[in-house]
Design brief:
The chain is of the alpha/beta class. It has helices at about 5-20, 40-45, 60-70, 105-115, 145-150, 175-190, 210-215, 225-230, and strands spanning about 30-35, 50-55, 75-80, 100, 120-130, 155-165, 200-205, 220-225.
């Protein structure tokens, strides 16, 4: 099965998941998670029409972005989808469509600093440790409102929603309560006075559970293996 075939199959499954809950395919953005993937694989997914790329590691992102730029044939929107350290912000701002993994105020302030220097507003999401796992980064749900308010006060950071990564499971249904909890958290923040535009995105759902994520309100899904095939 080619990458093009996989992309087509994923788009059909996304559309079917959306139809089950009354959502349009346009409601969900497909982000190709390119961690460890070769330039040839990334080019193939771009040729298949997926132009939103997400990277976990800054060094990989910088290298791949330069390689794709040299090709000069694709218009790509890059996303930081992994943990971002403050000292790496200078490598990704400016240049990112969205940073999914803000989980503390010092990181947001560093993004503010770099975005101000570039005279732009950098879109970000707050990463929530939705299941309270010690092994995962992200802010605790009870602390999200305070961080959201602080980020909203920054002039060059544009808060656009929340991101989560539920505990790994072989069953997609095991992710559903966590996706539902993230959507409910976003709604509570809006009811508490946060502008709805600040909670317009929910980045949730990976290769094993993205259909469930769409059913629970995901607007961004981060897919790797289901697009590229198993890693070699």
């Amino acid at each position: 099965m080619t990458i093009s075939d996989r992309v087509q199959a994923v788009r059909e499954r996304l559309a079917a998941a959306g139809e089950r809950c009354g959502r349009s395919p346009a409601d969900v953005v497909l982000i190709a998670a390119t961690k460890t993937r070769s330039p040839e694989e990334v080019s193939a997914v771009l040729e298949s029409g997926v132009t939103e790329l997400g990277e976990n590691y800054v060094q990989e992102l910088v290298t791949k972005r330069a390689a794709i730029d040299r090709l000069g044939q694709f218009s790509v929107s890059w996303h930081v989808i992994g943990h971002l350290q403050r000292n790496k912000v200078k490598y990704v701002v400016p240049g990112m469509a969205l940073i999914h993994s803000v989980d503390n105020l010092p990181l947001a302030q560093e993004i503010e600093k770099r975005a101000a220097q570039a005279d732009l507003r950098q879109p970000v999401l707050l990463e929530v440790n939705i299941a309270g796992e010690d092994s995962k980064t992200g802010i605790e749900p009870a602390q999200v409102a305070e961080l959201a308010e602080a980020v909203m006060a920054l002039g060059h950071v544009d808060l656009q929603g929340l991101m989560c990564m539920p505990p790994y499971s072989d069953s997609p249904e095991d992710s559903r309560p966590h996706f539902r909890a993230l959507a409910a958290l976003a709604e509570r923040l809006v009811r508490g006075g946060l502008p709805r535009e600040a909670m317009r995105h929910l980045s949730m759902g990976m290769s094993g559970d993205y259909e469930v994520a769409v059913e629970e309100g995901a607007t961004l899904v981060r897919l790797g293996t289901v697009l590229f095939g198993p890693r070699t």
